[in-house]
């Protein structure tokens, strides 16, 4: 009994000590980054989140050891691991410098690192070209070592964390920054970064492994980490990756299921690839996110099955509704299709006229219930396709049918029965088109939505205008420039006194007083736009210099001023609109001086700048070592450099370019400063008019790139054309002497001039006959050869593409035979005129032979654009031509050859295009073929 009691005591003692030991066991402390989304970051609730965090949680469950995450900024995290306050770093790239401090486990994930380039640097294609620019990086990150290994001459700007780096990029502090591939947590910041630093311009640094790190000598811990991760199920790892990245890392982009034969939304092109509105939207999504996309095509049912069976990640766009539920998850509203009534033979006058008739529709239409409510007395007849409804309408089995307007219009034209059908515009049904996926993949859903959030309304509208030709069928047209003004704001604007706008008297072309004493320039046109859109009165107030203008704005003497730089000091006293005009800084130096691209190159030199510019405060820093020379205006700054009073002059690019063109200063040259090339102009607003700022931003958001280009051309050409008074009188004196000289010359040479004129006219006629066709006045074969050689040289130098279209008109010979050559000649003139009207003025149209023509399309970005031009030519020239009251028709056959894909010499390009034209001819004509 005593022995039993002793054994029992020993057992309980051992059990108690083991429990104590278990309770004394401390969790593994893992230090992680605080803002490296989506790999390691702090969520909105303050919890540690991310792909690496979830991998470590899976490791914790696998090995049965508790883990605790501690978030720190990057440099602080490394110091915590080094000092022993943390046992493990969650995962980072391995560098030589870090190997001296830590031991690393096997990588648990990988990530691509990139250099993100500002959109103004889109022509930079390698890292060596970025040496004039500072590269923004997070202090302590591996990017510095990786980039120096690739280009030792790069210079860097350091930031405490990723958020500080992104904010610096947004305000133009850096034009290049390094970062890992992934998403940005804030949708607003993500959209702004994607717009300024497009993914298509980024440069790959390298793919790096993310490896857990421990202090030197922690061999047992390192072995435990590697062992635990090696035991994780691959399916679980893929599930975590898909949750955070949207797709598993081993997967090559997003696979999209697409329904064919729904033009203009999706269909196969001549290149065998899907084309259309939906495809262009997804291609833009791919460009914005940097995620490649591929397409699996089929009919409506098979394309849905691709998604259900996992053969595709998403469906390109489907009319999902409560009545037409596929069982798949709606990820994103892609588009909205308008459907209308179509009738054959005669238009529909009123809805009541067809209320007692038979109306056709497709069973998958989500608007069937609304259609029945609209026509309660009508008989609804369902058909399996639009084609079947068209045939039923032609046979008289139905009076009308409802279908997608854009799709049906395209289909009717394709079948050649477009003029027989009429569309009723007063009744419209809208169908929502959704991106669909399997239920449950929240990571993919989030990635898809974030990508679409990066696409602006203007970009959607641009794609829509390309594919939806009838503006009545577009959904974005009215949304882009529509101002949303509340009733309260309307009342505020109506009762507001005239808005006082300050401007500079002589700051061409941005703003100035013209000869009539009126506020003029780029800013004046934008102020007029504000005046028109907001229905307000404006009072322009002139100021002689920047200092007096900014002082007046701060005091409230004026309430608005344009081209004001947004600085921290000014932001404390003024309000600012969104940026509305790019305003990079340029440098004027002597023509013999070395080109300057950043401020550091000016160290020890005298630099002129207009008094009152905000840049003065930045240039006063000792790190630049320059002597500032303050001048009154742009003209004075250029004169200071010309007269040797300054070594260089800093001014806005647009103002300096206009002034150089106006003064025709040959001894100076201009270069853009890389340090300050990404700055923008804002409207500065006095705080008393704070309520105006969001309304001003609404108006400015409608100023798109074509509008800016028109404004720029308008005012740059005007200011460049206005001579000074001294220049005017100098020109007048020169003109007088020239008139006297010319008069004497004409008098002396009068007898010889007639003979010279006749000989010159004869030479010109001979030259024209040598190079131009006498009938069509187009370039002939001789000039075509020269133009083609020039195009090859130009595009070889630019590494660009151009297209050669070989065009044959079948039926011209029969017109000559049956109707005579006079009719045939008039036909050729009309065909030549039609060709010229179908292409740009910069393109070449040449007559190759009697009924063959060649078109050179310069600087074509891709085959799609060329195919659109070919379609335009066929559409314009396949119609009947009325000649001497006779309708004449021809068949258009086109072969397309692309440089350099189809050849890099003229003979080869013409031969390929000719062969493809023959194929088009054999196919029945009125079509085009490409390789």
TrEMBL record:
PROSITE patterns: GGDEF
Pfam families from the UniProt entry: GGDEF (PF00990), SBP_bac_3 (PF00497)
Keyword Transmembrane: yes
Superkingdom per UniProt: Bacteria
GGDEF domain span: 800-931
Keywords, ordered alphabetically: Membrane, Signal, Transmembrane, Transmembrane helix
Membrane-spanning parts: 726-752
InterPro entries per the UniProt record, alphabetical: DGC-Regulatory_Protein (IPR052163), GGDEF_dom (IPR000160), Nucleotide_cyclase (IPR029787), Rev_trsase/Diguanyl_cyclase (IPR043128), Solute-binding_3/MltF_N (IPR001638)
Leader peptide range in chain numbering: 1-21
Protein name: Diguanylate cyclase
Protein source organism: Shewanella woodyi (strain ATCC 51908 / MS32)
């Amino acid at each position: 009994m005593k022995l039993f009691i002793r054994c029992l005591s020993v057992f309980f003692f051992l059990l108690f000590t083991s429990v104590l030991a278990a309770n004394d066991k401390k969790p593994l402390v893992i230090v992680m980054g605080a803002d490296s989304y989506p790999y390691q970051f702090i969520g909105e609730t303050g919890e540690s989140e991310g792909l690496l965090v979830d991998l470590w949680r899976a490791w914790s469950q696998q090995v049965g050891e508790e883990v605790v995450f501690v978030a720190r900024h990057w440099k602080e995290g490394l110091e915590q691991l080094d000092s022993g306050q943390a046992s493990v770093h969650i995962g980072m790239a391995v560098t030589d410098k870090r190997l001296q401090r830590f031991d690393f486990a096997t990588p648990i994930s990988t990530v691509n690192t990139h250099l993100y380039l500002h959109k103004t640097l889109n022509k930079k294609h390698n890292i060596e070209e970025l040496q004039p620019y500072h590269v923004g990086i997070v202090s302590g990150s591996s990017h510095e070592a990786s980039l120096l290994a690739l280009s030792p001459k790069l210079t860097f700007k350091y930031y405490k964390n990723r958020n500080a780096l992104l904010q610096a990029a947004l305000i133009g502090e850096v034009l290049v920054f390094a970062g890992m591939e992934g998403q940005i947590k804030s949708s607003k910041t993500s959209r702004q970064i994607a717009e300024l630093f497009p993914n298509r311009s980024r440069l790959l640094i390298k793919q790096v492994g993310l490896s857990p790190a421990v202090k030197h000598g922690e061999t047992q811990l390192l072995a435990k980490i590697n062992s635990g991760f090696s035991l994780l199920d691959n399916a679980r790892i893929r599930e975590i990756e898909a949750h955070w990245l949207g797709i598993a890392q081993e997967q090559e982009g997003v696979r999209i299921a697409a329904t064919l034969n729904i033009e203009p939304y999706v269909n196969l092109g001549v290149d065998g690839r899907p084309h259309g509105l939906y495809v262009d939207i997804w291609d833009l999504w791919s460009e914005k996110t940097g995620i490649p996309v591929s397409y699996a095509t089929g009919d409506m049912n098979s394309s849905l099955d691709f998604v259900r069976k996992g053969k595709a990640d998403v469906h390109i766009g489907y009319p999902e509704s409560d009545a037409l539920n596929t069982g798949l998850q709606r990820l994103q509203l892609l588009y909205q299709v308008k459907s209308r009534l179509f009738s054959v033979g005669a238009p529909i006058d009123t809805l009541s006229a067809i209320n007692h008739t038979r109306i056709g529709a497709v069973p998958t239409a989500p608007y069937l219930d609304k259609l029945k409510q609209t026509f309660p007395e009508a008989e609804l007849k369902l058909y399996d396709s639009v084609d079947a409804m068209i045939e039923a309408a032609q046979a008289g089995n139905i009076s009308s049918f409802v279908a997608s307007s854009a799709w049906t219009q395209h289909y009717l034209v394709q079948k050649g029965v477009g003029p027989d059908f009429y569309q009723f515009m007063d009744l419209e049904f809208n169908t929502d088109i959704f991106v669909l996926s399997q239920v449950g993949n929240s990571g993919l859903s989030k990635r898809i939505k974030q990508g679409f959030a990066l696409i602006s309304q203007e970009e959607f509208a641009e794609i829509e205008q390309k594919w939806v030709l009838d503006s009545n069928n577009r959904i974005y047209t009215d949304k882009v420039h529509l101002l949303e003004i509340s009733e309260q704001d309307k009342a505020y604007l109506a009762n507001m006194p005239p808005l006082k706008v300050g401007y500079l008297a002589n700051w061409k072309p941005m703003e100035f007083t013209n000869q009539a004493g009126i506020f003029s320039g780029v800013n004046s046109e934008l102020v007029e736009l504000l005046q028109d859109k907001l229905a307000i009165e404006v009072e322009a107030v002139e100021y002689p210099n920047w200092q007096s203008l900014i002082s007046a704005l701060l005091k409230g003497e004026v309430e608005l001023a344009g081209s004001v730089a947004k600085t921290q000091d000014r932001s404390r006293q003024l309000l600012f609109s969104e940026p509305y005009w790019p305003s990079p800084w340029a440098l004027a130096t002597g023509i013999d001086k070395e080109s300057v691209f950043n401020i550091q190159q000016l160290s020890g030199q005298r630099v002129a700048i207009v008094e009152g510019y905000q840049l003065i405060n930045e240039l006063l820093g000792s790190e630049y070592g320059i002597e500032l020379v303050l001048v009154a205006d742009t003209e004075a700054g250029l004169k200071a450099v010309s007269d040797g009073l300054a070594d260089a002059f800093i001014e806005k690019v647009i103002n300096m370019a206009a002034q150089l063109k106006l003064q025709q200063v040959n001894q100076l040259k201009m270069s853009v400063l890389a340090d300050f090339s990404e700055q923008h102009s804002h409207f500065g607003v006095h705080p008393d008019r704070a309520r105006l700022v969001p309304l001003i931003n609404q108006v400015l958001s409608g100023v798109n790139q074509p509008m800016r280009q028109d404004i720029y051309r308008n005012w740059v050409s005007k200011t460049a054309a206005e001579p000074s008074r001294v220049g005017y009188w100098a020109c007048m004196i020169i003109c007088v002497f020239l008139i006297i000289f010319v008069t004497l010359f004409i008098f002396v040479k009068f007898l010889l001039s007639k003979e010279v004129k006749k000989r010159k006219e004869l030479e010109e006629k001979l030259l024209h006959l040598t190079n131009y066709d006498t009938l069509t006045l187009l370039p002939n074969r001789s000039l075509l050869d020269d133009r083609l050689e020039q195009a090859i040289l130009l595009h070889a130098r630019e590494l660009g593409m151009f297209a050669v279209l070989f065009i044959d008109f079948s039926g011209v010979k029969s017109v000559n035979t049956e109707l005579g050559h006079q009719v045939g000649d008039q036909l050729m003139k009309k065909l030549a005129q039609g060709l010229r009207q179908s292409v740009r003025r910069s393109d070449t149209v040449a007559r190759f032979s009697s009924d063959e023509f060649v078109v050179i399309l310069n600087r074509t970005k891709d085959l799609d654009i060329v195919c659109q031009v070919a379609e335009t030519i066929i559409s314009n020239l396949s119609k009947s031509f009325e000649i001497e009251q006779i309708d004449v028709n021809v068949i258009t056959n086109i072969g397309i050859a692309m440089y350099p894909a189809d050849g890099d010499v003229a003979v080869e390009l013409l031969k390929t295009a000719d062969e493809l034209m023959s194929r088009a001819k054999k196919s029945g004509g009125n079509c085009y073929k490409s390789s």
